[in-house]
Records
---
Amino acid sequence: MKLITAIIRPERLNDTLEALYHVDVRGLTISAARGHGGETETVATYRGTTVKMELTDKIRLEIGVSEPFVDQTIDAIVQAARTGDVGDGKIFVTQLQRVVRIRTGERDISAVTPAMPV
Ligand SMILES: Nc1ncnc2c1ncn2[C@@H]1O[C@H](COP(=O)(O)OP(=O)(O)OP(=O)(O)O)[C@@H](O)[C@H]1O
Ligand SMILES: [Mg+2]
């Protein structure tokens, strides 16, 4: 299992959610974030110059997936969130050790895929 953390532009969120839906990603968490992606501005100050780290509003998506879903999840985010301009964001993929569904006590693979309503 992997935890996919994606930092994207807020204006690309709706298209990204739609793309994720189409590759059967059902469980995810979204939060507002601010970040720095290397773009700096030089500011003149009274004793010289300093560098101001530019912070921009971003959306953080966190998605826990089993191995067969990893590549299609990444591809869906890249296609939907990309504009081609600097600042499109980044995707981090980390090893996911444990998942527990609180309602049922299910563990790991059976817990990471949302239970379909019956
Ligand atoms: N190394 C990093 N670690 C954590 N967060 C990062 C990192 N790089 C970028 N981010 C997050 O991603 C957001 C967007 O970054 P950005 O798209 O500028 O990345 P980049 O690698 O500089 O790509 P680009 O060349 O398109 O600007 C940042 O505002 C920050 O929230
Ligand atoms: Mg950048």
---
Amino acid sequence: MTTQEVPTSQQPLNTETGAAIYSPAILKLYNFGVLGLSNRYLWECPTETVLLPFFKEHLGLKHLDVGVGTGYYLANANLTPSHQIGLLDLNENSLRTAAAQVKQAKVSTFMRDVMLPLAEPADTGFDSISLFYVLHCLPGTIDQKETAIANLIRYLKKDGVLYGATILGDEAAHNPIGRLALKLYNQKGIMHNLADTLDGLQRMLERQFQSVQIRRHNKVALFVARN
Ligand SMILES: C[S@@+](CC[C@H](N)C(=O)[O-])C[C@H]1O[C@@H](n2cnc3c(N)ncnc32)[C@H](O)[C@@H]1O
């Protein structure tokens, strides 16, 4: 399968609310609140035993982290001076917080909206790109989120890997507290994922990559895609 262009002629979607929430104060609470409590009790996909090992498994020497949050995964990925790390995010607070976590490796930051046709990538040839908890923040249907994937492919080396995790929508049969949080976050525009499904994600990624592996850990889809 060949990489496909995604039409960009429609009205741009509003991506602001999915990124604006990450103020310095929210980022201070993020590791405990989201990575600690929410991942365990709401989405039932623990950070330390599921998501962090998955992050480390596919991390290449030249790696681009997209939607960086606090930089928790990079901070705990045993980076070495041989690693070259790119950080891409729409939010300056996230970029600054995450960059401060990457002490052992070379770091470049890119303040970009993954949903906008990216200008010529500032850097290319990444061995790996991680996209953890970003797709559920992006507006639109899972098919519209393909724009982000098509944009990021240009950063990836020919045999590189794009991998990530995203919280599924209603189809995941959320527990009562998860259902409440999902509804609230979608109402506020922090998440846009009520209709995101595992099959929809698989089909969307398969339009851009030859090989796609997806597994589900409770309410979270974990995907690995390569050409
Ligand atoms: C839920 S946090 C995820 C942080 C981290 N990857 C994790 O899993 O803990 C989402 C991150 O994606 C960024 N983000 C949201 N929408 C974006 C967009 N359209 N373009 C680039 N970054 C975006 C936010 O600013 C934030 O840093």
---
Amino acid sequence: MRDDLLPVLACPVCAEPLVRVDGGQVGCATGHRFDEAKQGHLTLLPAKRRALTADTPEMVDARIRFLGRGHYAPVERALAAVVAATEAPGVVLDVGSGPGTYLAHVLDADGPDETASDATAPDGRPDSPPAGAVTARLGVALDLSAVAIRRAARVHPRAGAVVGDVTERLPVVDDAAAVVLDVFAPRNQREYARVLHPAGVLAVVTPRTGHLAELAEATIAVDPEKERRLRDSLEPTFALRSSEDLTWTMDLSAADVHDVVHMGPSHHHVDPGRVFAPTTVTAAVTVSTWTVAGPPTC
Ligand SMILES: C[S@@+](CC[C@H](N)C(=O)[O-])C[C@H]1O[C@@H](n2cnc3c(N)ncnc32)[C@H](O)[C@@H]1O
Ligand SMILES: [Zn+2]
């Protein structure tokens, strides 16, 4: 974990900020300690739990292969545009990040590989950026799946990765995020409002009716009430700022079809040995952005 990301992270037991302590461990002022995994991520769960909703290794591998072939590039571009247009200070927090593909993309699109504050002036002092200079943002990937977070830990040099649970208090300090990304992932309006900077933005990607329609028989249908459920999950703490429907077609090989079926919840319902044929498939998603409207209500 990068040392400059530790002040963004909070102890899952007492909510104090985390610091590097003696022996290289990470901990809080109260005395709670967390070991860094060899891949570099931290596990910041409030208590030991079984990750019942977390993605499995097969699902994570299928997701990395499928997204790595660029099939969801329109989503990557839309999220990069949201981050580029956000002036609030803070990190990009990708909740339910999976292997962190979208986080890596928005950080790549955001700027050079290091923050301006990492530069050193000739006299050895930190070289602060000139007023108004844009510095490249840091990112945090958070997911309940340790398998996914192991992959996210190395997804980008400006990103850190945390095993955490979106249904609990997030292990992130107040106002730390300029942007919260939530791509096909569970949501927590109270916690998103707490960790977002007051001028920050929440970007949510949800599937629409018609998403992967040609694979309907092998995938789980999109809930027709999805839009209402999205509003119910974010209002009244958040107010809708923008909503963009993206629709595109994907020419998928047999391997692509296998991966798109196995990277989501349909993985649990499909015969693992089933062979698929190549086909053209529709993608239909909504990218919505939200800002905090008032104090958290739930
Ligand atoms: C459909 S995947 C989306 C992954 C990634 N955002 C993407 O689009 O590539 C949903 C993700 O949510 C994670 N997840 C499920 N329940 C969670 C929870 N309670 N807390 C954090 N992450 C969770 C899963 O492990 C999985 O990685
Ligand atoms: Zn603590």
